[in-house]
Amino acid sequence: MSGLSYQGSGVDVGAAERFVSAIEPLVRSTHGAGMVDHPSRFAGLIRPELAGLVEPVIAATCDGVGTKTLLAREPADFQGLGIDLVAMSVNDLLPLRARPLLFLDYLATSRLDPQRLEAAVRGIALGCRAAHCALVGGETAEMPGMYEEGRIELVGFAVGIVDAGDLPDPTPMARGDVVLGLPSTGLHANGFSLARAALFDRAGLHLDTVVAELGGALGSALLTPTAIYVDEVLELMDVVTVKAAAHVTGGGLAGRARALVGDALGIRLNPASFRRPPILDLIQASGDVEEAEMAATFNMGLGFLAVVAPGDATPAVALGWLPVGEVTAYGGQVDLGHG
Amino acid sequence: MSGLSYQGSGVDVGAAERFVSAIEPLVRSTHGAGMVDHPSRFAGLIRPELAGLVEPVIAATCDGVGTKTLLAREPADFQGLGIDLVAMSVNDLLPLRARPLLFLDYLATSRLDPQRLEAAVRGIALGCRAAHCALVGGETAEMPGMYEEGRIELVGFAVGIVDAGDLPDPTPMARGDVVLGLPSTGLHANGFSLARAALFDRAGLHLDTVVAELGGALGSALLTPTAIYVDEVLELMDVVTVKAAAHVTGGGLAGRARALVGDALGIRLNPASFRRPPILDLIQASGDVEEAEMAATFNMGLGFLAVVAPGDATPAVALGWLPVGEVTAYGGQVDLGHG
Fold first, then answer.
1. A111 neighbors A151 (Cβ within 8 angstroms)
2. B197 alpha carbon, distance to own chain's centre
3. Hey, is the C-beta of B50 within 8 angstroms of any chain A C-beta?
4. Which residues of B114-143 are buried (b: 16+ CB within 10 A; e: fewer)?
5. Over the stretch A50-71, which tens digit does the pLDDT of each residue have?
6. Topology of domain A178-335, per CATH?
7. Which of A307, B118, B280, B323 reaches 20 to 30 Å from B24, CA-CA?
8. Between B38, B58, B145, which is nearest A148 by CB?
9. How far is CA A115 from CA A77, A127, B290, in A?
10. How far is CA A92 from CA A251, B185, B337, in A?
């Protein structure tokens, strides 16, 4: 019986090193002028642009893609999840008007799968470029015995910078303010437990089931990557005063809309003002899901919300934002216009 | 057959909310003067102390605790893993002389286990206080079907700040420079796949096996939390010029020592100058592991290394650092003094 080695204990160090070499050009493709090179590779270093900031505040977020990852099979699916991963974290910086600066990823699996992992990093790099942030580092962990076979966990961290004086101030929000929205691309990365239960367990559909209303396979519709809203939101905030904003994620459109206006005010959305993705109707019909449950789980077609004074609605609409509703005097009430 | 709801699809929203309430005081215990409160809870906000910094550089790291988590059973174990999690990320900031500013955690499991998760967050808060950084946010994900039963994944993310002019500069490193070290507390969070293969698979030991040389149960020795070196390293760097430094993690003492001095120089360590944790001997004997494999996997008793000029060794030793070796002219050679 020979002596044990690290290699023999289930961790393939060589494969790990080849993977790191393969993703290096992807990582570099996200690097701009602020990157700082240092021979110690322990941490990612970046020089933030602080010129013009009176009181720089650092904003930090982290998130995963949830059980959406359970649906991914092909490398192309994991590339999409990489985009989702960046979107989930950088979109959360935007309600604070924080400009994305850097991103780190953590990928983990029970057995290193270079093809799928490289595809995920490719998607992360695409997402970082869309968000104008640098992928400054990350960790890829092979953990036998941790994950169920074939699963890959993806966790993302984003850091942004905002001037303290630029932080949105919800204090003057008032009845009659306009709620603006940006369309979602589909489910984004929330509500997948319910979606799977309805579509697969209840209705017996499969990822490969072609659904006419979806224009293709169910899997493609479910795995459509989350929209990255960095350009649209920061542009809006440069042009008008945004009183409050929300990335529509956990809690669904109803939960996020309610949190957006606080306890003293209410919100009324006009469902005719935005498109409900067809996948939602399929989930609802398949699982016999009540409308309130749908709205408390899914984004319902709106991925990002912002509240502006009535006079600021016109320039916002000129930038492509949808006027989707208004702030009401009915404290705590969310009226999504259904029933 | 009733309609599906999010609750019914395997995600317990109420339990999640109770967990968030329970950890709030722990999170707050890490908050200092720089915290910025904003009604939008999407991102953690912190105002970095930039006074006196000519050219602030942001350093960012992320890491998990690897397969060490597979050994944790009791809440107390998870509290230790929380400390590990902070240590793995903040110690990686230190070779850059970056002062830890903020930390975020991502905890995920197949089924929410509030007791263990709360213990993990308690450990994270303890670690953050030791590292003088604020726990500004995090994500706890319940993902049925993702993790093997009972597993909890922990991922950490740290951000620090350093003045560009304070970044350690390895250029003047030369033969005869002194290598300083800080003792590890045990395995820290590396090499657990090999440790488990040797101790459990080969030798048939169990976590509860009492081992006289370890002064107690094997599980306690294995799960001892990683040391947090923030105070010791930043103090050293305030007092003397550190040319290069390394947190001893993946690649073990041999790998990290080699990377520390680069290709042009070598390094020789004196094994009599630091204590080898008894757990290492047990692993080596149990798995019949070659010494070179041990040194390429484990920290061997040194958790952190720093290189200083010979004249700076005395003040460093006065601060409690161990003089553990020297830089040699033998490029690429690492001599750990064994055989």
1. no
2. 22
3. yes
4. bebbbbbbbbbbbbbbbbbbbbbbbbbbbb
5. 989 999 999 999 999 999 999 9
6. Phosphoribosyl-aminoimidazole Synthetase; Chain A, domain 2 (3.90.650)
7. A307
8. B145
9. 11, 18, 33
10. 14, 38, 51
Architecture of the domain whose range is B8-166: 2-Layer Sandwich (3.30)
Maximum separation of any 2 CA atoms in chain B, in Å: 80
A235: exposed, middle or buried (Cβ count in 10 Å: 0-12, 13-18, 19+): middle
Provide the whole-model pTM: 0.95
DSSP string, B187-228: STTS-HHHHHIIIIIIT---TT-EEGGGTEEHHHHHHPPPPP
Boundaries of every domain in chain B:
8-166, 178-335
> How many residues does the structure list for chain B?
339
Rounded percentage of chain A residues whose pLDDT exceeds 70: 96
CA distance B302 to chain A (A): 17
Q: Which ranges of chain A would DSSP assign to H, the alpha helix?
A: 13-28, 75-93, 114-131, 192-196, 218-223, 230-239, 252-261, 278-287, 291-295, 313-318
Residues A58, B153: C-beta atoms closer than 8 Å:
no
> What is the CATH number assigned to the segment(s) A7-166?
3.30.1330.10
**Which alpha helices (DSSP H) does B169-311 contain, by range?**
192-196, 218-223, 230-239, 252-261, 278-287, 291-295
Taking contacts as CB-CB distances below 8 angstroms, the residues of chain A near B290 are: 3, 5
Which structure tokens are listed for B277?
Answer: 């944790």
Cβ(B154)–Cβ(B65) below 8 Å: yes
Q: Which of A92, A106, A168 sits opposite B62 (nearest CB)?
A: A106
